Amino acid sequence: MVDGAGFVTPYGSIWRTGANDGTKITFSDDVTVEGAKVPAGTYLIFTWPAATEWTVSLYKDLTLGGNTAIMIKQKR
Length: 76
Hints:
By secondary structure, this protein is mostly beta strands. The protein contains 1 helix and 5 strands; from the N terminus they run βββββα. It has one helix at residues 68-75, and strands spanning 23-27, 31-33, 36-38, 41-48, 55-59. The strands form 2 sheets. Strands 1-4-5 form a 3-stranded antiparallel sheet, with no helix packed on it. Strands 2-3 form a two-stranded antiparallel sheet. A hairpin with a 2-residue loop joins strand 2 (31-33) and strand 3. The longest helix is centred in the C-terminal third of the chain and has 8 residues, at 68-75.
């Protein structure tokens, strides 16, 4: 399955990175992720898997839950 078609989420498609709802991550201190400063707080994690690397996005708006339709619009 080189193209990821048989995976939970095919390559290039958004994944809410959790089952039935968005997965949250909490940083108790400010952190730096891939050179970007991220203030302490709780975030939703959304990912876009690919064959050799994944794009990971953190969203401060926890009300999004697992609503990937909103994320697809923002990614474009």
